[in-house]
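Data card: per-record layout.
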Amino acid sequence: MSAPFLGNRPGAAPGLPNLPEPPSGWPIGSYAKYEEAQRAVDHLADNDFPVADVTIVGVDLMLVERVIGRLTWGRVLATGAASGAWLGLFVGVILSLFSANGSFGAILLGLGMGIVFGVVSGAITYGASRGRRDFTSASQLVAGRYDVLCQPRNAEKARDMLAKLAIGSEQT
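The structure for this 172-residue chain is written out next.
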């Protein structure tokens, strides 16, 4: 993984975040799935290629939202109670550490208050939506294809190595 704002761009002030820049390099491969691009870069790394010159670029980005299930009052209240219980338990433990006798009552009080807060918070949020979004989902950013780029000084060597990988995978 890389951090897009924390690179060491020449001329950038030290300690300040860098602005995003388009990737540079020559294309050495294009893949339909991220796993294939990752496998190509892994092949280069396994063969002592200077992979610091390589970049994987997702092209034709799209946001995919996969629906997980239906959202009901029961599910909303149970989820609110569970998340509130964790928060309340945490607060209760902290309070018990600072109480004079380290009472177990502080933990139970925090737990109970957390559950109530979680249920009320979940009910208010769900009630305010008025049924406009009665499902749960998970979002993911995916690309239509993944291009592997390499700095020009090593691009030809990288293409040759990836061509051998492609030939080897066709024979198996």
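Known properties of this structure: Helices lie at 34-46, 73-98, 104-129, 152-171. Residues 26-65+143-157 form one domain.

See the next section for split statistics.
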